[in-house]
Amino acid sequence: MTGAGGPELLRAWRASGLSKKDFWRANHADAMSYNAMLGRMWRAENGLQATPAPYTVDLGKPWLLPDDDYIIVGDVQLPTTDYDFMALPLAIAREHMRRGHRNLVLAGDLLNADAFSLYDMDTETPAFEQEIEAAQVFFAEYLTVFDNIYYFMGNHERRVGKRTKAALKPQHILAMMTHDKRVHVSAWGHCVIANDGGIPYRVTHARNYSVNQLVVADQLAQKYQMHIIQHHEHHCAMGWDRYGRYVVVNNGGLFRPDVMAYAVMDDSKSPAMKRGFTLLRGGTPYLFSDEPFTDWSAWLPERRAKRARHSADSRR
After folding, report:
1. Could you give the percent of the chain with pLDDT greater than 70?
2. How far apart are CA 276 and CA 253, in angstroms?
3. d(CA 105, CA 211)
């Protein structure tokens, strides 16, 4: 809690001639809540100053990214990744985004971090070393196309911090994978993308789960009054929230379920895991997934591929 102390507040209020609410609005609304001001003033009026020092912690702030074009991916879950599908965000970015405006939001769960999981393993899982090596390849490849990469934490990255008692922080995890200054990391589990003249987009790796598509995203839209692009549930869907005010997206992932033991070895009524990612361009989201959800020939026309091959052949 920040702002002036009780005696200082009390003196200033008495000298102002204002009601307490108007005094708060005019002088302290940006620094503290109204009830916090009342509590401090009440203590000062009654001579109760023997309070413990307030606990403070600097958690920083989530990113507020500028209005621009972005591709949003998440749930890559290296190295249990569909490397063929992983190339498609690169292809869409190169084909449909302007140079200098090719931004990637990496919305958590880049890694599996199985070595740091509390769940007991009954099958072989990738070693953390394998995950880091796969992430190094991921960044090397994605940095050939993207101008900036904004990487924030998912529940799988949280495993590392929890098991090491925060000794390994997000910046330490990133340093194992890349030192490229175009890659930025945040300890938060969400960010907000500004949408000039419109409602912003909240990109999140939410903690909650529902077997039903868009249910959690809808609830987040009501809570935060924003469009929502959500990861964690492994659904792939897009629609309006229940009141038709906000666009809500379940953004799929770049994973490969057939090599994830927990996803395929035992029967389950859990929904199928679906690949997907979103292009946010000009304030409009375009959700990509497997055909027929996406007509890839419309987005990556064959005639362009032929020109690219012709150009490559001519340089040989």
Report:
1. 94
2. 5
3. 25
Measured distance CA(234)–CA(268) in Å, rounded? 15
Instruction: Find how far residue 35's CA is from the centre of its chain.
Output: 32
Cα 126 from chain centroid (whole Å): 24
Q: Which two tokens stand for residue 8?
A: 């200082």
Angle at CA 177, nearest 5°, toward 175 and 255?
Answer: 135
CB 128 within 8 A of CB 113: yes
DSSP 95-135: HHS-TT--EEEEES-SB--GGG-SSPPSS----HHHHHHHH
Phi, psi of 21 (to 5 degrees): -65, -45
Of the CA atoms within 13 Å of residue 208, those in its CB half-sphere come to 12
Read off the pLDDT band of 86 (50, 70, 90).
very high
The contacts of residue 193 (CB under 8 Å, 6+ apart) are 65, 67, 68, 70, 105, 200, 201, 202, 203, 280
